[in-house]
TrEMBL record:
The keyword Hydrolase applies. It comes from the Bacteria. Pfam families: PRA-PH. The keyword Hydrolase applies. SUPFAM superfamilies: all-alpha NTP pyrophosphatases. Keywords: Hydrolase. This is Phosphoribosyl-ATP pyrophosphohydrolase. It comes from Rummeliibacillus stabekisii. InterPro entries: MSMEG_1276-like_NTP-PPase_dom, PRib-ATP_PPHydrolase-like. GO terms for molecular function: hydrolase activity.
Amino acid sequence: MPIYNKLVRDFIPQIIEGKGKKCIVEELSEQELLQKMKQKFIEEAYEVNEAKNREEMKEELADLLELIHTALEVYNISLKELEESRLAKAEKSGRFSKGIYLVEVLDE
């Protein structure tokens, strides 16, 4: 039987059991959830990197967005606050839309 040791969506145990299988789960404390969410962000980022088409990218971005929403709840940050922070960073440093790739900074 595979061992996963990872954060999963809330209904995954019921989905597994609905297929006639059993699973062992733990309910994480808030502190443990914060740690496991950070690991899950990295896992999902790798999956975004591996996405081969629009549909796969959409699914992986949805997972990242769900993690973001969960992090907002846990850290008590409103979506409005997040958007304000995003806009402030965009105003100060720009976005990523122009595809600028920094190769090197030379000291003069």
